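Cast an eye over this sequence plus tokens and explain the fold to me:
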Amino acid sequence: MENNKVFPDNFFWGGAVAANQCEGAWLEDGKEPNITDVMVGINAKTAGLKFNEETGKWEMALDPEKIYLSHEGIDFYHRYKEDLALMKGMGFNCFRTSIAWGRIFPNGDETEPNEAGLKFYDDLFDEMLRLGMEPVITLSHYETPLHLMTEYGGWASKKMIDFWKNYVTAVFERYKGKVHYWLTFNEVNNLYRRPVVSAGVMSVDPPFDKNDPLKVSKEDNWQAYVNILVGNAWTVKIGHEIDPENKIGCMLTSSCIATYAYTCDPKDAWGAYNIQRISNYYFGDPFCLGMIPGYVKRMWREEGVQPEVSEEELKLIKDYTVDFFSFSYYRSGTFSSEVENAFDTGGIKGKDNPYLKAVSPEPWKWPVDPEGIRYVLNVLYDRYHLPLFIVENGIGLDEQPDANGEIDDEFRKTYIRDHLLQVREALLDGVEVMGYLYWGPIDIVSAGTGEMRKRYGFVYVDRYNDGTGTLERSKKNSYDWFKKVIESNGEDLEI
């Protein structure tokens, strides 16, 4: 095999966004609020919620001092045809977005879906297909209906499983024949650190902290874990029964798999491996192998919890595993037993890796580790022997048009080129890679920080952190470069 002809002919080239970060129209056509509608980034320390002593319930209480950019997003809800045309202009044959659950079942517990919401996604998917782009659709991308959380505790309640089954059945039936690639829960392995936003979990039964809606009890967190495993299995079962052509995958943030021991101290080696397990495999193993790992059960014992799960549910988890593994990768990290290892949306933040040559510019300064994506691809393929789908990889930069109205984003082109060279190496290693979807091909609201300043796109959107801007779209210099990459099927990566 020649080194410059490695990417398969059926390789998916495209980009990925999420409804809550781009659509806007947050209360339009019957939609009700979801959890990200009351947050300013998933890294926020507070949420727009308060506890009502009279009703004994959490309720929405937006902070008038905050700007909730996601409420308007980039107005993709009304401008999707323009935006999809820009994506097709780069040659995309695939586009990933999510269905906002609250557009289909506004509160989440209704028995009948909202027709206006169903029609919007009908029209959206029809336009993708007309342009020759395969829809890859996430069923839950930080968009759990707020009512399900404040009323029931979200995934901490076993009632959630039936609400979820009702939702996925409705969309599988409605979009049968239009959508064949489905992702269940986006980056749900963030549950252990960020349960409210990433997995739609709240503590609503005493005892809990009435001053902190983001604080979730260990009991609720682990019950949510089990319930999500059951919900995932039901998704695979229902999806295959409604349309045998459906391919249903999990979606996990996998940057943390590229966590390197900072030294050869066994404590660092074990710590790095344990980060991989409790950041990824604890969901990957049940989703792909159908089993709950022993170290998870040890954590239950040591934390004094015993989630409710029946033998029938354990069999369901075993029998209905996913068809492929999709993931995000942004950067690697290190583990050192000498420091406190923190996390953000990109992965673990330990000591700086002295062997990496580049970091992204201020203010985020993420280490750039292209070889990390090859490492992750090989580790996942060796572990699960399933097709792998890169559905998020990208770099956020603080950028504005110059005096000529151009954005010369060389750093972005270099980042992508170097990562694609390592994807090529993984393919040569024998890893089955389905495609490469760049995260944020058009500027959208940042999930981690809730701002527009952190821009990932090939397409610039005139909108700012204070909510101003024309929303006009314009191409960055990387636009034509990525078009060339796709036209060559990954053979021409020259900058």
Residues 218-242 form the longest helix (25 residues).
